[in-house]
Amino acid sequence: MERRRDPERTKRRIVEAAKAEFSAKGFAGTRVSEIAARAGVNKQLISYYFGGKEGLLKALTADWQGKESTFAGTSPPATLPELVRGYVTATVRDRDLARILIWGGLQDDGEEDSALLRDMRDNVEDLRRRQAEGEFPADLDPAYLLLMLFAAADAGAIFPQLVRAICGDDPASEEFGERYGEQLARLLRHLNTDKS
Questions:
Q1: How far apart are CA 83 and CA 77, in angstroms?
Q2: Whole-angstrom Cα distance, residue 22 to residue 145?
């Protein structure tokens, strides 16, 4: 009996294979043929479904944004400590996506990514709003705070050897994510200037 084709399942396998390859080698170091081999498909299917590597990277970005919306797109909006804890947890749960972001920085060619620029400007504006509402002191620059928070949230993926050496934790464990996320949240609560 011939197996029925399942395009959605095939797309998911391709996206998961791309995530693993991009995580291991970076976007620039990954070949479409390697993604196809890992997914067990013909490389023409990658072009057909995604238009190539760039389309796969967009699919992974959309996947991340879907995960992000579960903790960052809440109503009412999460507090800054809750938000950062959410990013830490998401990074621990999907280290491959964090590693892809890290590779992007390592392979930076200086070209402007307009979607990333818009997203980061929106994030800085959100921090300015939070600052005006007293979530953190007026003498902190929201743009630099955002940069610090990104680095802090991704610390387990950036420095796994330091997590093991300093904390004695497995940087890929849920326990590390919970403990580290809580410590970052506590640190941010100390910045809250709204004492009412």
A1: 9
A2: 28
Let me know how long the chain is. 196
Structure tokens at 77: 């909006």
Which token pair is 183? Answer: 């410590």
- Strands (DSSP E) contained in the chain are none
CA 59/CA 123 separation, integer angstroms: 21
- Count of C-beta atoms within a 10 Å radius of residue 146: 15
Nearest-angstrom CA–CA distance, 169 and 162? 9
Q: For 36-92, write each residue's pLDDT tens digit.
A: 999 999 999 999 999 999 999 999 988 888 888 888 888 888 999 999 999 999 999
CA–CA gap between residue 156 and residue 163 (Å, rounded): 6
Which bin fits 98, alpha (ψ -120 to 50), beta or left (φ > 0)?
alpha
pTM: 0.84
